[in-house]
Amino acid sequence: MARRSTPLLRRLLAPSPSPSPYPSTPLAGAVSRRTVTYMPRPGDGAPRGVTLIPGDGIGPLVTGAVRQVMEAMHAPVYFETYEVHGDMPTVPAEVIESIRRNKVCLKGGLATPVGGGVSSLNVQLRKELDLYAALVNCFNLPGLPTRHDNVDIVVIRENTEGEYSGLEHEVVPGVVESLKVITKFCSERIAKYAFEYAYLNNRKKVTAVHKANIMKLADGLFLESCREVAKKYPGIQYNEIIVDNCCMQLVAKPEQFDVMVTPNLYGNLVANVAAGIAGGTGVMPGGNVGQDHAIFEQGASAGNVGNEKIVEKKRANPVVLLLSSAMMLRHLQFPSFADRLETAVKRVIAEGKYRTKDLGGTSTTQEVTDAVIAKLG
Amino acid sequence: MARRSTPLLRRLLAPSPSPSPSTPLAGAASRRTVTYMPRPGDGAPRGVTLIPGDGIGPLVTGAVRQVMEAMHAPVYFETYEVHGDMPTVPAEVIESIRRNKVCLKGGLATPVGGGVSSLNVQLRKELDLYAALVNCFNLPGLPTRHDNVDIVVIRENTEGEYSGLEHEVVPGVVESLKVITKFCSERIAKYAFEYAYLNNRKKVTAVHKANIMKLADGLFLESCREVAKKYPGIQYNEIIVDNCCMQLVAKPEQFDVMVTPNLYGNLVANVAAGIAGGTGVMPGGNVGQDHAIFEQGASAGNVGNEKIVEKKRANPVALLLSSAMMLRHLQFPSFADRLETAVKRVIAEGKYRTKDLGGTSTTQEVTDAVIAKLG
């Protein structure tokens, strides 16, 4: 009896050992011992195909980083790569067909030329596959100091209509009309998606962003749809905010926001502001989802493909696409791989040794990628 | 510039707040941002067949029901009364499970001897749930004699010693047939290695007694070795079941995933559950190609004794953790995380514990404590 109780006594009397070498991040120690009880179905380990579009600018650099990390983890995904560039007239049919087949796509940014007659291929992809919800998750990463704390905002943005309808015409020379189209159908489904997201992820509040004091009918219709859906979720708080006040509140008191549902243009701007206050567009993951397909990419500013200097020096930040690919792994129902990848990335950021220029460091993409691979558990 | 940098400086210079120094789990899990992009329609409620069962079954399934309601989880239960002394599982129950694909059940008491075959086993064979899984791990705050236990026992569920083929050769002489097939051994080995692969486990150990039952357990081992070749990244070794039981109580940290035939799995799972905290806390379930039944991990046929039922002191933790596995199986990871975190916090706190964990609480008190801790 005495022999068995000694180790027990020793454990009770010893001070609790600090499990992580970084006591300031409670995340590090806990996640490494996180036992996720999970009973997979037989056959769940079969590899899944993912369409990969490297894109322009920094795209090939960061998608290359994702590929390396996936191989290091032996993740059950294989990539079907397609070359698409922003100056093509349309997205090639084989790419669309591949995404329809695989149902999931990972892409770098596609540069959209300003002006001219070429419509954005990013938008084209979303409309073609009816990916009507764009999601950006902006949150403070431990170890990355920012001017704003307690940021944990998810911006859900309508992706197919609004100001991005692409319907413009020149009435008379020197006068151009651009049509913003808001439909009840699209507003309703984005509101439904936002509230369903809040419900599934234990979020407490949904805020609708609008400018209905000026665009009374268009944004008014959007608000009506949100209010109708809000009635079905009595447990979730719902409020509305005008977009200019919203932008100001985001930089003043970001902790008041939780989930935000917005039409197309406001969503783009709000997502960029939220990403900026939480650490930059180089770290916030996101994607586009529709009924059948999902495309994962850089959360905000997906059309931003960096400048030539970054591409030359290979100093693009791979964190954002790595976190988005972790979302993708969770979407494909590989929660354990997703957790490993996210933990490794967060540890690298918390450590602070390997950071690219936008986070205040001097590392190259490859150095950050190697650091993440080294930290995979 | 100075005005913006002051809060930043203050944050960098202030000491890092430690939410609760002894449980790194509590603070981190409450701030765990799981980036997760659901498909539209993922929030639609799913039906789950519920079988309260015998003995402590109705008590603990009632606890699960209360917690699910408190969380507003998108599941609704179709309840069916099944008792261990029925001749067979009613057809409507099987049909309901086939429709819902997922079932949660309390234990069904199997009478010793007699002609009634176990309804637990009947359910598994009828739905071809060929893998039984028990996850045995130390819970923070629950002191045990063994540390660093994190074992998953994957047990073949349909054949072996449980074939139910017995006959009396002559009066006073009974033969019981143990049947091992390549088909079943192969699929359970495949499931075990796939589990290890998907959950980042490093080692799979096959448990056998092939020195005595050379052909039967030898066939099992052959199948395991074949599958092991396809997973070069995962260590594979074999251990004889008697040595295994001794090693479990001496050095449990050497085991990771264990794949076993039917009977050894039952015993090994119970030993592993016992060293890690008891059968009252270990979650588990049975899974097949199409269906899954979640229940108390080990000793599912153990329905407690009358005294526990009378005083309502059954431990709901095992079934709560199993229902968290079920939520994850139904692809509601956020709800699963919340439930697991709440249960682990209640155990870590140590205030509300039933008798098998050394406390004096009733089932209802533990359930209320879990509901109070839901984030």
Features:
homodimer; 377 residues; alpha/beta; Isopropylmalate Dehydrogenase; ten-stranded mixed β-sheet; two-stranded antiparallel sheet; 13 helices; 12 strands; 19% strand; globular; disordered N terminus; transit peptide (chain B); mitochondrion (chain B)
Topology:
2 copies of one chain form a homodimer.
Chain A: H1 2-13, H2 26-32, E1 48-53, H3 59-73, E2 77-81, H4 93-102, E3 104-107, H5 121-128, E4 133-139, E5 152-158, E6 162-172, E7 175-181, H6 184-200, E8 205-210, H7 218-231, E9 237-242, H8 243-252, E10 259-262, H9 264-278, E11 285-289, E12 294-298, H10 308-313, H11 319-331, H12 335-351, H13 365-374
Helix pairs in contact in A: 3-11, 3-13, 6-7, 8-9, 11-12, 12-13
Please explain how this structure is put together.
- The structure is a homodimer.
- By secondary structure, chain A is α/β, with parallel strands linked by helices.
- Chain A has two domains: 45-135 and 284-376, 3-Layer(aba) Sandwich (Isopropylmalate Dehydrogenase), CATH 3.40.718.10; 147-169 and 176-278, Isopropylmalate Dehydrogenase (3-Layer(aba) Sandwich), CATH 3.40.718.
- Chain A is built from 13 helices and twelve strands.
- Chain A has helices spanning 2-13, 26-32, 59-73, 93-102, 121-128, 184-200, 218-231, 243-252, 264-278, 308-313, 319-331, 335-351, 365-374; strands spanning 48-53, 77-81, 104-107, 133-139, 152-158, 162-172, 175-181, 205-210, 237-242, 259-262, 285-289, 294-298.
- In chain A, the strands form two sheets. In chain A, strands 2-1-3-12-11-4-5-10-8-9 form a ten-stranded mixed sheet, with helices on both faces. In chain A, strands 6-7 form a two-stranded antiparallel ribbon.
- In chain A, helix 3 (59-73) links the parallel strand 1 and strand 2.
- Chain A is globular, with a radius of gyration of 22 Å.
- The relative contact order of chain A is 0.15.
- The model of chain A is unreliable at 1-5 and 11-33 (pLDDT under 50).
- Chains A and B meet through helix 1, helix 2, strand 4, helix 6 and strand 11 of A and helix 1, helix 2, strand 4, helix 6 and strand 11 of B.
